[in-house]
Amino acid sequence: MKRLVLVAALAAVSACSEPATEATDEAAVEEPAAEEAAAMAADGGPPYGDFKVTTAEGEVWTEAVSEDGTYTSTSPTGETETGRWVQRGNQYCTTKDEEGATEVCHTESVDANGVWTAVDPEGNTVTVERVAAAE
């Protein structure tokens, strides 16, 4: 929201300013793209794609994380959950598509052996694997 107000203020000032402020406007427009490019999953890849998520109990879920900020998670029994996601540093945060849902963030890391894990706020740990796209 602050960025939107800043961009609107810059646009208003640039309408009355000399061309020297155009560089500031361009920098403000390019900044979000740079932030988006910086968002990475724990494995160093983009935060979106298809993932295999294995619980401590051995249950395997699949998660399709779309670049548009939506996800679909499929349980071992085929039930699906949909929602929105955002990557904040080492935090992968999701909000289910259901009334009253709140955002839940999972702390992600990759250990010395290259194993990618995510831990929810209750301390439950899952192993995450990126699934290569079918060619």
Automatic annotation (TrEMBL):
Region entry Disordered, spans: 18-52, 64-84
Biased composition (Low complexity): 69-80
Residue ranges, compositional bias (Acidic residues): 23-34
Signal sequence segment: 1-22
Swiss-Prot/TrEMBL keywords: Signal
Name of the protein described by the UniProt record: Secreted protein
